TrEMBL record:
Its EC number is 2.1.2.5. Pfam families: FTCD, FTCD_N. It is found in: Cytoplasm. One of its GO terms (molecular function) is folic acid binding. Its main location: cytoplasm. The gene is ftcD. This is glutamate formimidoyltransferase. Residues 3-179 form the Formiminotransferase N-terminal subdomain domain.
Length: 293
């Protein structure tokens, strides 16, 4: 059985779909890549490319994708509701089959060295980072692109690869290896961002919520809604249904309803099994093998 690695590349462009298409064309020139999902969000001004394959093929595809994104995206003109520090904002590599975390870290570090050679400052995170204070993505991205130039002057925030000088056009990139993450968004029928921020406190780890949930409130101006945007970094320890029910309960306090939800990118099948267990009270005799496509 061959090794399979997954990449989830987040670029800071979700409004100009001609740029997104050119970036897509660049990485699809590599053979042996299976595209799982491409998700562009205009409010976030962000696109997430998710694909998998043999590790060296995934590495080569990611290099080509990143090079094209760095060429085409100008961060000095970027506006969007989602936190970001660079044109190629964050690039996690996720072990899928017959590949160790250590091997995924090696791929991330090779990619980081390549991107650094293009003049982009690169930070390693999660399992690819040895320094505890800069393992978590929110800590690296604190202040976002607008604070990056000043932050890079601090020796504690020198990049791991690439130049130590601020790159205004491309910003910086975060890359590493991690456990499969679930990107889960809940959209609310209110335009009041302050309500969204209060609801976020009920689930966000940093505010005393769930340890494995990172969350922010975003305004979706075109939809006239507020979004609770979350990264669930360990769905085994904090399942999706628990977070959904907590947000639904908190929203009711403000006479706010959930309009809909979004799962961005791939979702591990065992995370879906948890949802089936909770909402359908499904028998323990049910097997994941009963699910097919």
């Amino acid at each position: 059985m061959s090794k399979v690695l997954m990449a989830e590349v987040n670029i800071s462009e979700g409004t100009d779909l001609s740029i997104v298409e050119k970036v897509k064309e660049a990485f699809l020139t590599v053979d042996g890549i299976e595209v799982i999902d491409i998700d562009s969000n205009a409010d976030h001004n962000r696109t997430v490319f998710t694909y998998k394959g043999e590790p060296q093929n995934v590495l080569e595809a990611t290099k080509r994708l990143a090079a094209k994104a760095v060429e085409l995206i100008d961060m000095t003109k970027h506006k969007g509701s989602h936190p970001r520090i660079g044109a190629v904002d964050v690039v996690p590599f996720i072990p899928v089959r017959e590949i160790t975390t250590e091997e995924a870290v090696d791929i991330a570090k090779e990619f980081g060295k390549y991107l650094g050679s293009l003049g982009v400052p690169v930070y390693f995170y999660e399992d690819a980072q040895e320094k505890e204070y800069r393992k978590a993505l929110p800590k690296i991205r604190k202040g976002q692109y607008e604070a990056l130039e000043e932050r890079m002057k601090d020796e504690e925030w020198y990049p791991d690869e690439g130049p130590k000088e601020f790159n205004p056009k491309s910003g910086a990139t975060v890359t590493g290896a991690r456990f499969p993450l679930v990107a889960f968004n809940i959209n609310l029928d209110t335009e009041d961002i302050d309500i969204g921020k209060e609801i976020v406190k009920s689930v966000r780890a940093a505010a005393g919520g769930y340890t494995y949930v990172r969350a922010i409130a975003l305004s979706l101006e075109e939809k006239r809604q507020v979004q609770v945007s979350m990264n669930m970094i360990n769905y085994e320890k904090t399942p999706i249904h628990r977070v959904f029910e907590t947000i639904k309960s908190e929203a009711n306090r403000y006479n706010v309803n959930i309009v809909d939800t979004e799962l961005v990118g791939p979702v591990p099948i065992y995370a879906i099994r948890d949802i089936l267990d909770f909402y359908l009270r499904i028998s323990k005799d049910f097997s994941i093998d009963q699910i097919y496509s």
